[in-house]
Amino acid sequence: MTTAPEQVPDEVATVGERAKPAASGDEAALSVRDLTKTFGDGEETVRAVDDVSLDVRPGTVVGVLGPNGAGKTTLIKSVLGLVIADEGDVRVAGVDVYDDPRAAYARVGAMLEGARNVYWKLTVRENLEFFAAVGGESPGALRERHDALLEQLSLAEKADEPVNDLSRGQKQKVSLACALARDVEVAFLDEPTLGLDVESSVELRREIRRLADQEDMTIVLSSHDMDVVQDVCDRVVIMNGGEVIADDAVADLIDVFRTSAYRLVVGTDADGSETAVDDETRERLRDAYDVDTFESRGERTAFDVALGDPERFYDLMDDLRDADLTVHEVESIDPDLEDVFLELTNGDGATPADRANGGDRQ
Question: Domains plus CATH for the chain?
Answer without folding.
Answer: 23-252 (3.40.50.300), 261-333 (3.30.70)
